[in-house]
Design a protein that fits this description.
The complex is a heterodimer of chains A (about 180) and B (about 240).
Chain A lengths: L11 E7 L5 H7 L4 H8 E5 L12 E7 L2 E3 H13 E7 L1 H5 L11 H11 L15 E6 L9 E3 L6 H12 L15
Chain B lengths: L11 E6 L2 E6 L4 H7 L23 E4 L6 E2 L10 E3 L3 H17 L14 H8 L16 E2 L5 E4 L8 H10 L4 E4 L6 E4 L16 H5 L5 E3 L13 H11 L1
Parallel strand pairs in B: 1-5
Antiparallel strand pairs in B: 1-2, 3-4, 3-5, 6-7, 7-10, 8-9
The chains are: A alpha/beta (about 180), B alpha+beta (about 240).
């Protein structure tokens, strides 16, 4: 979101990505509508599905993760975000609780794969092994694998809740998301 | 619950709750006095109109001079008692209790029929539970959809036993009871028959209305549609006592 006219030196850098989620939390982020213009004056989104950068920078101020940890790729991304981000936010119920992706934990992983790739497929039923990340046996919330600083529950958290959390952080305060959002919100 | 007419031999005591000087009848419990004076004390198993169970421990309070915590629902007031309802220690314990309830079974608020109308979800928010620090157990529990009007989802059950008590004490059917121990503990209908085959159930739906979560719901409800109405309970309870 950098513009050519304003210096980006003093802006807070933000990285976001989605793990096992529906991208709804990112859509809720975009639902901040005209407030995004204000936000763009104060933050620089340096890495995100919403921008074009392919590499997570070495040092980022705020990392925002949507989705649960369900595959080896999710786990690597979560670890990378923790390593490179000063402050890490779990955004949404999948990141905070496991939510809908974690419902598969009630079934054996082999049964889940069979259901998706054999039982419901007409043409060439087969379990993919190339170019897709290996699924983990148990879907977990992000804080079960890496330390998380701020939890923003909600499915999805409202644009107002995301705005509140980011505004508080930009102002140098620690937000209390329970004031504005809850599990399932 | 308060009787319609106080007995003449019941005395009044004075006590302090959170530095408020209050008076109460000596047969009242701490939670009753708190509710009368709009002092918020969280609870899940306690419900005005039903007998006291004392199982959820969310209503724990500190009483000056006592090292251990007391459940406000099952502790009577006493002369000179000094009660604290919202200390940092109590907030910490309540938060932990709620987290363990979320971790024990499967409360997926976003897809629950009671989303937005659930007492566990609301208490989670008001007690500042923005994540669960203990690992989720990830154990599936059965769902009983055999009743033509209602559904029982053990995954959402917190074993508050409100259904058991309302069925026994208000409806007088005693269809519900509790079976098993620890994490195997389940509410059951008759002798663990499917609900739809129960011979004692009158299908009155009182259990559904008092259930604090999405464990007991109406058939045919979708996400967030199950709104409960508990207004009948204190009215029926007082009429039963007045007889």
């Amino acid at each position: 979101m950098s513009t050519t006219t304003t210096s980006t030196a003093n802006r807070i850098t933000v990285a976001t990505t989605w793990l096992d989620g529906c991208s709804g939390c990112h859509m809720s982020f975009l639902d901040m509508d005209e407030r995004l213009v204000d936000l763009a004056q104060q933050i620089d989104i340096v890495y995100s599905p919403l921008v074009d950068t392919k590499e997570l920078p070495e040092q980022v101020d705020i990392g925002i993760l949507e989705g649960s940890i369900s595959s080896e790729d999710d786990l690597e991304k979560a670890k990378a975000f923790r390593k490179h981000c000063t402050l890490l936010i779990s955004l949404g119920d999948c990141a905070v609780t496991g939510n809908v992706p974690a419902i598969r934990n009630h079934f054996k992983l082999s049964d889940v794969l069979d259901r998706a790739y054999r039982e419901n497929v007409d043409l060439q039923p087969q379990i993919p092994t190339k170019s897709v990340p290996v699924l983990l046996t148990t879907v977990k919330p992000i804080h079960s694998e890496v330390e998380v600083d701020v939890f923003v529950p909600g499915c999805p958290p409202s644009a107002d809740a995301i705005w509140y959390v980011l505004s508080e952080l930009i102002a140098g305060r620690k937000p209390d998301p329970s004031q504005v959002t809850r599990f399932g919100a | 619950m308060p009787l319609p007419v106080p007995q003449p031999n019941i005395r009044v005591v004075t006590l302090k709750i959170d530095d408020q000087d209050l008076s109460a009848r000596e047969d009242e419990t701490i939670i009753e006095v708190c509710r009368e004076h709009k002092i918020p004390v969280p609870s899940l198993c306690y419900l005005d109109g039903l007998s006291v169970w004392g199982g959820c421990r969310l209503c724990v309070v500190e009483i000056a001079g006592q090292g251990r915590l007391s459940a406000a629902c099952s502790t009577r007031v006493a002369e000179g008692m000094h009660v604290h309802t919202n200390t940092e220690r109590l907030q910490r314990y309540r938060r932990t209790i709620i987290e363990m309830l979320f971790a024990e079974r499967n409360h997926v608020c976003s897809v629950c029929v009671s989303n937005g109308h659930c007492e566990l979800q609301a208490l989670g928010q008001s007690c500042g539970v923005d994540h669960v620090r203990v690992p989720y157990r990830q154990t599936p529990y059965p769902v009983d959809s055999s009743h033509e009007s209602f559904r029982l989802d053990h995954n959402r059950c917190i074993l508050c036993t409100r259904c058991v008590r309302v069925c026994d004490e208000i409806e007088g059917a005693h269809t519900w009871d509790v079976m098993g121990r620890g994490s195997d503990c389940l509410v059951i209908t008759d002798l663990a028959l499917p609900w739809g085959e129960s011979e004692t159930c009158t299908s009155c739906g009182k259990c559904v209305q008092v259930c604090p979560t999405g464990a007991l719901v109406k058939q045919g409800t979708s996400v967030g549609e199950m709104v409960k109405d508990q207004h009948f309970l204190p009215i029926l309870a007082r009429r039963r006592h007045a007889r």
